[in-house]
Structures are given as structure tokens and as C-alpha cells.
Amino acid sequence: MKKSEYDNQYAKENYDRIIVQVKKGKKELIKHYAKNKGYESVNAYINTLIERDMAQEGEKSIHIQNSSGIIVGDNKGNVIGGDINGNITM
Predict the structure, then answer these.
(1) Taking 80 as the threshold, does the pLDDT of residue 79 lie above it?
(2) Where are the alpha helices (DSSP H) in 1-90?
(3) Helix (H, G, I), strand (E, B), or coil: what is residue 38?
């Protein structure tokens, strides 16, 4: 398997894709802005903005605990446990 095929398969299995549409010409402006702010990519910039906004609002986010489960929690200390099969315990 070629590295690019492996990378694509890994991404497919481990990430969700979100498509963002912007007006023509704005993509390059965003790319330039993100680079000037020190981000390695537009994707990194967008992910950081989302995480910061969700943290401010106290929204829940998913954190990988280990290979046998996940921890879902918010910035108020509320925690919900789950396993890798999607079974959630409260």
C-alpha cells in the first residue's frame, strides 16, 4: 500500500469531514491570515476557532482516554463515560 493510500484510509477511519464554503477569493485570504497567525493550515486554524468557541460556551467535547473508551466532558467538570462501540454511561 502506498503512503498516500494509507494516509487516506487512516483519515477515513479516524476523522469526520466538514466542508466549508466561502465566496470566491476568500479562501486565499483565510489561508494567508491563518499562516500569518502561526497556524500550519486552514484546517488547524478552523479547528482551533471551533474548540475555543465551544470551550467558552461550555459545550461538551470528546477526548480520547485510551484505546478501550472515551471520556466526554465539558469545562464545568461534568463527565460521561463511553466505550469505543458508542455505548454511553451517565
Answers:
(1) no
(2) 3-14, 26-36, 42-57
(3) coil
Whole-model pTM? 0.57
CA–CA separation, 86 vs 15, rounded Å?
15
Return the DSSP state at 86: S
Determine the Cα–Cα distance for residues 34 and 43; give it in Å rounded to an integer.
9
Number of H helices, E strands in the chain: 3, 4
**Which has more pLDDT, 90 or 36?**
36
The CA radius of gyration of the chain, in Å to the nearest whole number, is 17
User: Tens digit of pLDDT for each residue in 38-67?
Assistant: 999 999 999 999 999 988 877 555 554 444
CA-CA distance, 15 to 31, in Å (whole number)?
21
Q: What angle do CA 77, 47, 6 make, to 5 degrees?
A: 110
